[in-house]
Design a protein that fits this description.
Two copies of one chain form a homodimer.
Chain A (H helix, E strand, L loop, with lengths): L2 E4 L5 H14 L11 H10 L3 E6 L5 E9 L8 E8 L8 H16 L3 E8 L3 H9 L3 E12 L3 E11 L3
Parallel strand pairs in A: 4-5
Antiparallel strand pairs in A: 1-2, 2-3, 3-4, 5-7, 6-7
């Protein structure tokens, strides 16, 4: 059984390698493949409203997500999240558990909806999971993602109104 | 005949009042109505790749726009712009001229597409103008904008692939 808790500074040595591996692959996130540790720390830890980790029963960090407002001011009632699972922990439902956790946290913080701005269309597993969790594809951005293997591919905007 | 050129520091005393009036109205931009001058300066001048002003023949600044990458890294071939016209200069085609100028500048900078992330659906004049200039509504975000008079209203994602 995994547990999800707030990120602590001592988690960074476990979090950075999974962010680095995900960004370096260049198939799912906009962050440049050569994103530095300092840039990743800023984007994943400093800039968001909150960051979380999912841990194995023995305490090992298996995955992480951030939660933040998607827009300033008059768009700040809609939040945005990013989820990264370490490759060794894939296929165990951790992304699903984190997304459900994120929705509860978002509601507790007062957010009314959650938006994903750039879901890479070829990331079929993610698209399927978000749909299963109630997110709708509300937009398609033609060629908006420069996939490191496939070249320019479409990206999806996905959205879910949250209920308390 | 208006002319469009790069923003210079001496333009700020003319640019800030039109940004302030637009943000304070809270009907078209996400920026909070109470956005401070320093915050506006950061968002409109410092953060973007470039900022421009549209001037009357006598040199008066009538309008302004910014141009920046919409996403980092693997999404950075898509740009984003924001346009603000002073209330006294509305209805003269300045937004249209700026958007066409922005598309040429974006192509010159190597951008392949332009995306507007949060076009307030009730801002019918803007929606009509962007459509006329070749932008497609590629997404609708339900209740994503907290309109200061109307409450939560939809926002549109609009997108145009640019050709050199």
């Amino acid at each position: 059984m995994i547990s999800i808790r707030r990120y602590q500074e001592s988690d960074w040595p476990a979090v950075w390698p999974m962010l680095h591996a995900t960004f370096a692959a260049g198939e799912t996130y906009a962050y440049a493949p050569q994103t530095s540790e300092a840039q990743a720390y800023h984007s994943w830890i400093e800039a968001p409203a909150a960051t979380y980790v999912a841990c194995a029963p023995d305490g090992r960090v298996l995955a992480t997500y951030y939660l933040k407002a998607n827009q300033p001011g008059l768009g700040s009632h809609v939040c945005n999240c990013g989820f990264v699972v370490s490759s060794e922990a894939e296929g165990q439902g951790i992304a699903s558990a984190m997304c459900q956790h994120a929705q509860r946290e978002a509601v507790a913080m007062g957010f009314l909806a959650m938006q994903f701005n750039l879901v890479v269309a070829t990331n079929e597993r993610a698209v399927r999971l978000w749909k299963k969790l109630g997110f709708a594809v509300v937009g398609t951005l033609p060629g908006a993602y420069r996939h490191q293997r496939l070249g320019l591919v479409d990206a999806l905007v996905m959205y879910k109104t949250l209920s308390a």
